[in-house]
Automatic annotation (TrEMBL), chain A:
<keyword id="KW-0436">Ligase</keyword>
<dbReference type="GO" id="GO:0005524">
    <property type="term" value="F:ATP binding"/>
</dbReference>
<comment type="subunit">
    <text>Heterotrimer of A, B and C subunits.</text>
</comment>
<keyword id="KW-0648">Protein biosynthesis</keyword>
<keyword id="KW-0547">Nucleotide-binding</keyword>
<dbReference type="InterPro" id="IPR023631">
    <property type="entry name" value="Amidase_dom"/>
</dbReference>
<comment type="similarity">
    <text>Belongs to the amidase family. GatA subfamily.</text>
</comment>
From TrEMBL, chain B:
<dbReference type="InterPro" id="IPR017959">
    <property type="entry name" value="Asn/Gln-tRNA_amidoTrfase_suB/E"/>
</dbReference>
<dbReference type="Pfam" id="PF02934">
    <property type="entry name" value="GatB_N"/>
</dbReference>
<comment type="function">
    <text>Allows the formation of correctly charged Asn-tRNA(Asn) or Gln-tRNA(Gln) through the transamidation of misacylated Asp-tRNA(Asn) or Glu-tRNA(Gln) in organisms which lack either or both of asparaginyl-tRNA or glutaminyl-tRNA synthetases. The reaction takes place in the presence of glutamine and ATP through an activated phospho-Asp-tRNA(Asn) or phospho-Glu-tRNA(Gln).</text>
</comment>
<dbReference type="GO" id="GO:0050567">
    <property type="term" value="F:glutaminyl-tRNA synthase (glutamine-hydrolyzing) activity"/>
</dbReference>
<comment type="similarity">
    <text>Belongs to the GatB/GatE family. GatB subfamily.</text>
</comment>
<keyword id="KW-0436">Ligase</keyword>
<comment type="subunit">
    <text>Heterotrimer of A, B and C subunits.</text>
</comment>
Automatic annotation (TrEMBL), chain C:
<dbReference type="Pfam" id="PF02686">
    <property type="entry name" value="GatC"/>
</dbReference>
<protein>
    <recommendedName>
        <fullName>Aspartyl/glutamyl-tRNA(Asn/Gln) amidotransferase subunit C</fullName>
        <ecNumber>6.3.5.-</ecNumber>
    </recommendedName>
</protein>
<keyword id="KW-0067">ATP-binding</keyword>
<dbReference type="InterPro" id="IPR003837">
    <property type="entry name" value="GatC"/>
</dbReference>
<keyword id="KW-0648">Protein biosynthesis</keyword>
<dbReference type="InterPro" id="IPR036113">
    <property type="entry name" value="Asp/Glu-ADT_sf_sub_c"/>
</dbReference>
<dbReference type="GO" id="GO:0050567">
    <property type="term" value="F:glutaminyl-tRNA synthase (glutamine-hydrolyzing) activity"/>
</dbReference>
Length: 493, 497, 99
């Protein structure tokens, strides 16, 4: 039998439904692959071997009894450790939650289980999803399978790397400022941020509530769409969940895969196609634009004048919300407690706990957010950032009056070496320059591989109007049909 | 600190003008909490009415309870407020262990209801208390303080937290500052809270029990010399009964006047009312100027009440207490002023229930506004807590009406009921207090009295019926009060006609 | 001029319940200054008459019915607690000694 770990999720599902492979065989192959390579990749913080095999057995039993299987039944999936999984450690890659086992499942996880997917384990990330390299994981970084000395992107570097290392065919990420798309770009995989409100945040440990969006990660566009359709849709437990049907993203991906983009108008974001990006990234991007034109798409340059303020707005809004969201980690109800010697007051114990339990980037952002929300600074910082958010949204809506989607590189640089951007936090923030506007607007965006620069993957971003997630899948699948998927190094010892 | 001699209340009022303000929290009686489906019943085992949402577990999200939004709007409407067409919840950020998320989901500069008023009457005079805002928020958990004296937070070595109460919907009603009340300030404060309680009770959205904490009141008080600007206010917490509202304002006026007269300035501070002594003590001094870093709650979408829905809720409001009082005054045949006394005594429903149990309006009112009001006042409790139920009063009055008790005996029976000896019938039985209705025994006593007072008997025979009173008195004396005077009189007249 | 002082950072850390070390203070003060200087240009955007966006979804009035749903058991509720007693979460004394 061919190696199931190299197959697409759709192929794996096909094997299982046809009976050519059992779900247990598929799960075992992936668990073995993890056992073989994860020491070097470190994509996983926790591997749930028993749980995965039990879920796989359940799928096999259902099939044996002649029950109908869903389109992803038996397909393994890795889940970012920021998402609550009942009885399975969920740490958000933070020391402050070390060993915490949630008494409940996130909605996304419930839906994965209901669809018969097989959860392999929890993937590494920057602590509380704050970062672009996984270097801020409290449990050590994830290494990029393309070059183990380089970052896999972040915050969802573990999910992206697990795909590139063939440890899982599918993974769940969360995207607050680019945490699904930028890791996708630098690992040569596909990462999609759905419309905010299109996927439920219930059970997603909040970083920035008004921006956080769970979404699919895969090695190709159709797989991403399949996963998207399993996890998306209205959830009554999330007040910001949109009570509308999910666009048919799978059909859109299949339509795009035919390679015909006749009549589709692409808006090239002028502000993101010039300076700021590495030349190799821009070159790969431009070649891809030409490829899309050959498929029949019309490309026009579009100006989004306020996008240049997206990064500052984001670094005020996200830390502000984070400072409030992370207040609950105080060593009272769950997680770490430090310094409770019977003498110290609660405030002292809380403060020691939080200082010991949070890493430097989390602390910086908590302090920054506390500052931006302070009464004397609120209007100048948080308030102003929310107004800029309105202007960025207007840039998008104006652009979408004349084009179907917007396009740009996903991130200005390819995977960078460890340690090269940690000393100056702002240099790290620049990795999200092109992904952040979408989060502020709330629309969907996808990163799809579009070539290599210096032997490292480059990502192509497609941004669509809110609740038009199908459009981005169509364009991304068309590009994929033209440039092909990327094949990372094998990692064989 | 030196102790300044306190002025009398009259002295304080002679020199200073008080300004009061009230912040009242009302726990709504919804089935479930504000943002999750946990039940709200009082007295459950600790941490058994909690879920990921109200425990603030990572990843959990709130969804607002429609019934709580509706109840808040109804309260706003009953308080003559405007209902905001669009508003948001906000996060109030501060660390405290009884708050699971270390922020309270509340409302900040966009309350659901604004600009209302409540009119209260005292001695026929109407005072308008303006409402600044009515907003919705979530309650906190409860801490048990261990290791210190009498369970207080001071001196405790540790605390144990129960989150059953965390997340129960809480409505906060804030008045505008009320100046110009003079000596009436404490009474107006009490009358306002009473009226507020009655209004909310009539809406059936909370059991509004101050003693159980489902209604909590903070009282702001400041003093200024006539013509001067308003003074610095203090906020008094722990005001747990209607009576305490009045006492707290009064004692704070006296305390502040003493300080001001002695040349000490008033600090803006939180004070705690002491039920036993009736005065206020300083609360925690620390970090009074906390920056709560409010911002719109991103996990909840805006509240935009449909105007048609609001109109529907308004049309469906029940009869409000002021309207009801006017109606009852007419039904009971009493003046508006008398009705106000009944209301101020908290006796409306008690009297209503007593009437419903079969007593005349006059009879019911006589007991609740007379003997029982006196007893409540003496022992410093609310009328409703005096220890007698409307049904018992009705029974008592029924016995009087049937001639089985006279007024004097009835008061003794009441004493037994208050003392917990059971219903009136049981008290009569136990104490042997029934009127002598055995006509044989009474006739003997009447005959005895006639024989002992031949002069009077002669006058009565001559038609001077008024003289019968002396014989009645004699009979009552020999029966030690246990006879019905009316019956005795009839017997005497029958004998001598 | 520095956008934020070391003292301000110390105050914010206290407000945030972070017992930062002196070394962290030095480091954060410098880094936060760089970040704040970089984000401060947001003030250049003329936005006086622009309404703020707090939510990107145009939803209002999302409510649930007032119906009881299952709770956690006491054991589940306390399962993650660093310390508990008598069915409750145990915390050190709330007040400082000088209170």
């Amino acid at each position: 039998m061919t190696d199931v770990t190299r197959m697409t999720a759709a192929q794996v599902a096909g094997l299982i439904s046809s009976g050519d492979a059992s779900a247990v065989e598929v799960a075992t192959a992936h668990l073995d692959r993890i056992a073989a390579v994860d020491e070097r990749v470190h994509a996983f913080l926790h591997v749930d071997r028993d749980g995965a095999l039990a879920a796989a057995r359940a799928v096999d039993e259902k099939r044996a009894q002649g029950e109908e299987l869903g389109p992803l039944a038996g397909v393994p999936v890795a889940v970012k450790d920021v998402i609550a999984t009942r009885g399975i450690p969920t740490t958000a890659a933070s020391k402050i939650l070390e060993g915490w086992k949630p008494p409940y499942d996130a909605t996304v996880v419930e839906r994965l289980r209901a669809a018969g997917t097989v959860m392999l384990g929890k993937t590494n990330m920057d602590e509380f999803a704050m970062g672009s390299s996984t270097e801020y994981s409290a449990y050590g970084p994830t290494n990029n399978p393309w070059d183990l000395g380089r970052i896999p992107g972040g915050s969802g570097g573990g999910s992206a790397a697990s795909l590139a290392a063939y440890e899982a065919p599918l993974a769940i990420g969360t995207d607050t400022g680019g945490s699904i798309r930028q890791p996708g770009a630098v690992t040569g995989t596909v990462g999609a941020k759905p419309t905010y409100g299109g996927t439920s945040r219930y059970g997603l440990i909040a970083f920035s509530s008004s921006l956080d969006t769970p979404g699919p990660c895969a090695r190709n566009v159709e797989d991403a769409a399949l996963l998207h359709s399993v996890i998306a849709g209205h959830d009554v437990r999330d007040s910001t969940s949109i009570p509308q049907p999910v666009p048919d993203v799978v059909a859109a991906a299949r339509l795009g895969a035919t390679g015909d983009l006749t009549g589709v108008k692409l808006g090239l974001v002028k502000e993101f196609a010039g300076e700021g990006a590495e030349p190799g990234v821009l070159a790969a991007f431009r070649e891809s634009v030409e490829a899309l034109v050959k498929l029949g798409a019309e490309v026009v340059e579009v100006s989004c004048p306020h996008f240049e303020y997206a990064l500052p707005a984001y670094y005020l809004i996200a830390p502000s919300e984070a400072s409030s969201n992370l207040a609950r980690f105080d060593g009272v109800r769950y997680g770490l407690r430090v310094g409770d010697d019977g003498n110290r007051s609660l405030e002292e114990v809380m403060s020691l706990t939080r200082d010991a339990g949070f890493g430097p980037e989390v602390k910086r952002r908590i302090i920054l957010g506390t500052y931006a929300l302070s009464s004397g600074y609120y209007d100048a910082y948080y308030g102003q950032a929310q107004k800029v958010r309105t202007l960025i949204t207007r840039d998008f809506t104006t652009a979408f009056e004349s084009v179907d989607v917007l396009i740009s590189p996903t991130t200005p640089f390819v995977a960078f070496p460890f340690g090269s951007r940690t000393s100056d936090p702002y240099q790290m923030y620049l990795a999200d320059l092109y992904t952040i506007p979408t989060n502020l607007y709330g629309g969907p965006a996808i990163s799809v591989p579009c070539g290599l620069s210096e032997g490292l993957p480059v990502g192509f971003q497609v941004m669509a109007p809110t609740m038009a997630d199908d459009r981005m899948y169509r364009v991304a699948a068309a590009l994929e049909s033209a440039v092909g998927t990327l094949t990372p190094p094998t990692l064989e010892a | 600190m030196t102790t300044t001699a306190l002025p009398t209340y009259e002295d304080a009022i002679a020199h200073y003008e008080p300004v009061i303000g009230l912040e009242t929290h009302v726990e709504l009686g919804t089935n479930t909490k504000m943002f999750c489906g946990c039940p709200t019943e009082f007295g459950a085992e600790p941490n058994t009415q909690v879920c990921p949402v109200c425990l603030g577990l990572p990843g959990a999200l709130p969804v607002a309870n429609r019934a709580a939004i509706e109840a808040t709007i109804r309260i706003g409407l009953a308080l003559n407020c405007d209902i905001a067409p669009w508003c948001r919840m906000a996060r109030k950020n501060y660390f405290y262990p009884d708050m699971p998320k270390n922020f309270q989901t509340s409302q900040y500069d966009e309350p659901l209801c604004v600009d209302g008023y409540v009119d209260v009457q005292i001695d026929g005079e109407t005072f308008r208390v303006e409402i600044e805002r009515v907003h919705l928020e979530e309650d906190t958990g409860k801490s048990l303080h261990v290791g210190g004296a009498t369970g207080r937070i001071h001196g405790a070595t540790e605390s144990l937290v129960d989150y059953n109460r965390a997340g129960i919907p809480l409505v906060e009603i804030v008045t505008k500052p009320v100046p110009g009340l003079g000596a009436r300030a404490p009474e107006v404060a009490k009358a306002y809270v009473t009226e507020l309680r009655d209004i909310i009770r009539s809406l059936d959205v909370s059991d509004v029990r101050m003693e159980q904490g489902s209604m909590r009141c903070d009282v702001n008080t400041s003093l200024n010399r006539p013509g001067d600007e308003w003074g610095t206010r203090t906020e008094t917490k722990n005001v747990n009964s209607l009576r305490s509202v009045e006492r707290a304002v009064r004692s704070e006026i006296i305390r502040q006047a003493g300080l001001l007269t002695g040349g000490t300035r008033i600090f803006q501070e939180t004070r705690h009312f002491q039920e036993t002594t009736g005065d206020t003590r300083p609360g925690r001094s620390k970090e009074t100027a906390t920056d709560y870093r409010y911002f719109p709650e991103p996990d909840l979408v805006p509240i935009a009440p449909d105007t048609a829905w609001v109109a529907e809720l308004k049309a469906a409001l029940p009869e409000l207490p002021s309207v009801k009082r006017a109606r009852l005054a007419e039904e009971w045949g009493i003046s508006a002023l008398d009705m106000q006394s009944v209301a101020n005594a908290g006796a409306i429903e008690l009297i209503e229930e007593t009437i419903a149990a079969g007593t005349s309006a006059a009879g019911a009112r006589k007991w609740w506004m007379g003997e029982l009001a006196r007893r409540a006042n003496e022992s410093g409790v609310e009328l409703a807590a005096v220890g007698v139920t409307p049904a018992q009063v009705a029974q008592l009055q029924g016995l009087v009406d049937e001639g089985k008790l006279n007024d004097k005996l009835a008061r003794q029976v009441l004493e037994g009921v208050v003392a917990g000896e059971g219903d009136p019938a049981a008290v009569i039985e136990a104490r042997g207090l029934g009127v002598v209705s055995d006509t044989g025994a009474l006739t003997a006593a009447v005959d005895e009295a006639i024989a002992a007072n031949p002069d009077i008997a002669a006058k009565i025979r001559d038609g001077k019926v008024a003289a019968a009173g002396a014989l009645v008195g004699a009979v009552m004396k020999t029966t030690r009060g246990q006879a019905d005077a009316k019956t005795v009189r009839e017997l005497i007249l029958a004998r001598l006609s | 001029m520095a956008a934020i002082s070391r003292e301000e950072v110390a105050h914010l850390a206290r407000l945030s319940r972070l017992a930062v070390t002196e070394q962290e203070l030095d480091q954060f003060a410098g880094q936060l200054d760089v970040i704040l200087q970089s984000v401060a240009r947001i003030g250049d955007v003329a936005a006086d008459d622009i309404p703020p966006t707090s939510h990107s979804v145009p939803l209002t009035n999302i409510y649930r019915d007032d119906v009881v749903t299952p709770c956690l058991t006491q054991e589940e509720a306390l399962s993650g607690a660093p310390d508990s007693a008598e069915g409750r979460f145990r915390v050190p004394r709330i007040l400082d000694e000088e209170d």
